[in-house]
Sequence to fold (115 residues):
Amino acid sequence: MRVLVLAKEGEQSKAATPPTPEAMADYEKFNGELVKAGVVVGAGRLSPSSQGKRVQFDGKKRTVIDGPFAETKELVAGYWLWQVRSMDEAIEWLKRAPYDGGIFEIRQVSQYEGA
Fold:
């Protein structure tokens, strides 16, 4: 199964504070373990919401809204796309992540016939 792991970030309307060199080394080690195990399909860090756009659909009307966005607690700061055997495996991998704080959401990617 594929799961999308969403890293939530509370205040991301401005540029995020870069991690320390030690923290970066821990992240790189963890990501290396994921890659070596064949779990990672894709990953990335997103730019601050101040650089983002939203497109709102209302019937045939399309409205573009510039960031930053008010509900910063709901922002996605980064993601991993993982190939795992189960949700339990995804949870076990995420528990090993070297984070001191934050909220992460794991969601199964729906598979449709023909896709």
